[in-house]
Specification:
- This protein has about 70 residues and is mainly α.
- The protein is built from two helices and no strands.
Length: about 70
């Protein structure tokens, strides 16, 4: 049982790392493509994406802490 819980926690940790890496790569790509000012709509979309990703990351971290306790 403990091994399964640990493996699940490790998988979630790896998923969180991959999620962060993917988000950073997307940001860098967007910055390269734009090379200038962005519209309010595009900026709002970026903020919404960022907030969505952070909420998901917080959920993953909360689950990891519950599993460890």
């Amino acid at each position: 049982m403990k091994k399964r819980v640990i493996k699940e926690a490790e998988a979630e940790t790896q998923a969180a790392f991959n999620f962060r890496l993917e988000a950073e790569e997307e940001e860098e790509e967007e910055e390269r493509e734009q090379n200038g000012m962005i519209s309010t709509e595009e900026l709002n979309k970026k903020f919404e994406d960022f907030i969505r990703k952070m909420k998901e990351e917080l959920r993953i971290e909360a689950r990891q802490q519950l599993v460890m306790v």
